Amino acid sequence: MTTDTTTDPRLMPRRALLSVSDKTDLVTLGRALADANVEILSTGGSAHILREAGLPVKDVSEHTGFPEILDGRVKTLVPWIHGGILGRRDLATHRAQMEAHDIAPIDLVCVNLYPFARTVASGADEAACVENIDIGGPAMLRAAAKNFTDVAVLCAPDQYAGFIEALQTGGTSLAERREWAAAAFTHTAAYDTMIASWFTRTAEGATPQTLPPVLMVGGQRDTLLRYGENPHQQAAFYRDGSQRPGLATARQLQGKALSYNNLNDTDAAFEAVAEFQAPSVVIVKHANPCGVASADSLAEAWEAALRCDPVSAFGGIVALNRPLDGRTAEKISQIFTEVIVAPEITPEAREVLSAKKNLRVLETGGMPDAAADGLSLRSVSGGFLAQTRDNGRLRPKELKVVTKRQPTAQEMEDLLFAFRVAKHVKSNAVIYAREQATVGIGAGQMSRVDSARIAARKSRDAARAAGKEGALTENSVAASDAFFPFADGLESIIEAGATAVIQPGGSIRDQEVIDAADAAGIAMVFTGMRHFRH
Q1: What is the pLDDT of residues 431-441, one digit of tens each?
Q2: What band does 5 get if pLDDT is binned at 50, 70 and 90?
Q3: Who wins on pLDDT, 156 or 77?
Q4: pLDDT number for residue 265
Q5: Phi-psi bin for 444: left (phi > 0), alpha (psi -120 to 50), beta?
Q6: pLDDT tens column, 30-57
Q7: Which of 237, 500, 504, 529 has the most CB atoms around its CB within 10 Å?
Q8: Phi-psi region of 119 (alpha: psi -120 to 50; beta: other; left: phi over 0)
Q9: CA–CA dist 516, 509 (Å, integer)
């Protein structure tokens, strides 16, 4: 038999069970229930707080006639609780069984769960983490959500106001109870996902690179965005519970609401600038860096990064790996910028930027560790792809000079800089750099030759904009994110004026490419590590 849900009965609770870990607004909810003559059942700390507020409360153990046992592990896992929640009021057989076993209906369940995630994040030992795995709470939430036709279920303090309004205006509607049921199932699913992920990560022999047989992904919606990449797409930003410095930790100090594209580009820029130790600036446009530089100061780094491609920098995202100072803020504010993100924004910089009312300014409170482990996910038809983060680091002893000419010390510094930038540029990627600054970036082309030529052409444009003859790529070095399948890509780089090249190597035609480098008298270094980014 099924319940007829075509009608929308408004139900007034007669009995409520309140047992919450987060005590926010608990007394407000309890007082509203008491004013409506609803009997309140409760446990432990929740009951204590309600009593202190002068509200009538009945202990669950008194209601069930069964004491809490096993250090509180078992207190609600009894028929008098779950029968009261799950019993269908529309079935005579259920009503008869409840009456026969002295099971009173429970019409409202308000439960939120032990703080498992917070306990793990605090660095607590395994025993403490395990003790903070809630068993009775999820069971009650799921039971109440399943029986939403007869029972209201609340799992978060921000739901209380809506429930209280319904309570004071005739009772909860079926639509409201269904909405709260969906929230409860979502809450318990996310909770179980966190626990399962923790067990997987901490299992014997597990490493950050372990990809489990079942991968569960959970997130809490933080912000509904106006639209996605395009106006006809819907979008939202979700938090995954981690505290990696960046979007999830950022505080927006000023400016318009962030869009989907703003968030995507800001993340790309901030992750890229985290690669560098010296004061550095990354300018991103459409998820690709269009200027990157490291220098003795942020102001100098900004000027060098902007010089690489001042046209693309217009309307871009600027990321910095040091607190943004007033002098640098003044320089950045001279061109139209969508977002500025930094670990800290100084008071002087905030004053300067306040004149740009629409400029979005984000302060993250720290820098992410570019070498940290983690997973990267991408949806595909019928599922998603998962891989470990590209946190590869070049080790000097693993580098191999394959040409007759060795790179100079300055060339080697610039080669390593350029290869680090290449990691954050869409493939095929070719990066020209000089004195720790990009002077040409070729991104996202189907041919590596085209990437090399586009970067060189943009470098000539940038030189003209700076009032210089030729191209900025003269006497630069170049990095390729993957090997050259033929010598033509290298030849384009040589034509652009590069004197040294860094690339992974590994092509069946490596020797042909090496011979072309030797013929031109340039140095070439193999890394043995590729940085595809699609």
Answers
A1: 999 999 999 99
A2: very low
A3: 156
A4: 97
A5: left
A6: 999 999 999 999 888 888 999 999 999 8
A7: 500
A8: alpha
A9: 11
Q: Are 137 and 113 in contact (CB under 8 A)?
A: yes
- What average pLDDT does range 187-205 have in this prediction? 80
pLDDT digits (tens, 9 = 90+) for 114-144: 888 878 878 888 888 888 888 888 988 999 9
Residue of 94, 256, 286, 356 marked active site:
286
Neighbours of 204 (CB within 10 A): 4
Indicate if 146 belongs to the active site: yes
Label the pairing between strands 288-294 and 280-285.
antiparallel
Residues counted in the chain = 534
Identify the H or E element spanning 38.
none
* Per annotation, catalytic residue among 23, 146, 331, 356: 146
Task: Report d(CA 85, CA 143) in Å as an integer.
Answer: 6
Element at 150 (helix H, strand E)? none
94 among known catalytic residues: no
**How far from the centroid of its chain's Cα atoms is residue 289's Cα?**
20
| Crossing angle of the two packed helices 160-167 and 174-202, in degrees rounded to 10 | 160
Give the rounded distance of the alpha carbon of 497 from its chain centre: 40
**Is the distance from CB of 28 to CB of 164 less than 8 angstroms?**
yes
**Cα separation, 46 vs 32, whole angstroms:** 15
For residue 69, is pLDDT > 80?
Answer: no
Bridge partners (DSSP) listed for residue 221: 238
Identify each DSSP E strand in 50-119 by its residue range: 58-59, 108-112
The Cα 208–Cα 201 span in angstroms is 7
Q: What is the mean pLDDT of residues 248-262?
A: 95
- Enumerate residues 6+ apart whose C-beta is below 8 A from 75: 43, 44, 60, 61, 68, 69, 136
Structure tokens at 180: 């709260």
Instruction: Confirm if 424 and 272 have CB atoms less than 8 A apart.
Output: yes
